[in-house]
Amino acid sequence: MSGGQPKQLLRALAGETLERPPWWLMRQAGRYLPEYRALRAQMPGFVEFCLTPELAAEATLQPIRRFGMDAAIVFADILLVPRALGQHVEFGDDGPVLEAVAEGAGIAGLRREGCFGLEPVYETVRRSRTALPQQTALIGFAGSPWTVATYMVEGGSSRDFRRVKAWAYRDPDSFAELIDLLVDATVGYLSGQITAGADVVQLFDSWAGVLPEVGFARWVIDPTRRITARLKESFPHVPIIGFPRGAGLLYQRYAAESGVDAVGLDTVVPTGFAREHLQNRLVVQGNLDPVALLVGGSMLAQAVKEIRGALGGGPFVFNLGHGVLPQTPPENVAALARLLAEPVDFA
Ligand code: CP3
pTM of the entire structure? Predict the structure, then answer.
C-alpha cells in the first residue's frame, strides 16, 4: 500500500476490529443500476463487454461513485476462465451456455498450457486502480475450481448437478485432471490481477454447498488450499476471501483448512454460529439477505442492526449473503450506506 489514507477493507482483513465495518456488495455493479444498463447497451455481447477495459473499468467504478463502498470489485465474470481454456461460452437471456465438457472426453478439448486472452481483464484492473480513490480497495476475483467445473460440465446452470457429480464420483482420477487444470488457471488468473493492482482477491464458490463432506473436502477445500498456498508464496500480503456458499456446517472445516484469510457467509449462516465458530479464527464477511436490500425500509434497518450487533465486535466486513438482485432499487443501497455510517452499540 502506498502512503496516505489507509484502506479500511485491508485493515479489517488484517484482523482489526473497526468501529464502522468496511463494506462492499457482491454483484454491486450490474443491472440494478440504470447507468450500468446504459453502458451495457453499447456492447451487445456480455463476454465482449467484459473484455473491453474501457467499459469494464467504467462498470467497476459506477457503484463507487454513487455509494462510496470501501471496495470496488473488478467487472468480469467467473466464466471467462473456461473460455480462456478454449471452451465455447455464451451468455443468453436465460444465463450462460457452454459447450459442455463430457466425462468421457475429459480435458482433451481444453488448453493444457493454461489461459489465453485474459489480458484485457488485467488492463481493466490497471485502469480501475488508477481511477479509484486511494482509500478504496480493489478486489480481483475468480470462481473456485469446483464451481467453475459445474458450469463447464453441466453446460450452464444446473438444478441437480448430476453430470458433474456423477463424473466426480464415478471417475475421480479423470475429474481431478479438470480440477488441477482449473487450479493452475486460477492461480495464473488471480496472479495476473494482483500484479495489475488488485489489493484483495475473492474466490466465489457459489456451488460449494451441493457436495457431501468427502466430496467437499476433495473438490472444494483441497483445490482452494492449493490456490491459497501458491498465491501466498508469491503475494504473502494480499488477503484472500473465500465464499463457500451453502457450506452449512462445513463452513468450520473450510475456515480451518482452506487457507483463506476471510470467509464470506451466505444468507442462512446464523450470525451466532459465525461469531462463535468462525470469527475466532478468521475474518468474516456477510451476510445480509439480498431480499432485505430489495425490500428496504425498517426491515432493512433491523436486519443490518442485527448483523452488526452480532459480528461487528470482531474482525468483520459487511456484505450481502449473495449478489445484489437486479430488481433492487438503488435508493435502498444508498440507505444501506447511511445505516453503515452510523455507530452501533454492541451487547
Ligand atoms: O459487481 C460485481 O460483482 C462484479 C462482476 C461479477 C459478475 N459476475 C458480472 C455479471 C461477478 C463477481 C460475477 C460472479 C459470478 N458469475 C458468479 C459467482 C457469484 C454468484 O452469483 O453466485 C457466477 C456463478 C457467475 C456466472 C454467471 N454470470 C451467471 C450464472 C450469469 C447469469 C445470471 C445473471 O446473474 O445474470 C452471469 C451473467 C453476469 N455476470 C451478469 C453480470 C453483471 C449479467 C449479464 C449482463 O449484465 O448482461
Answer: 0.97
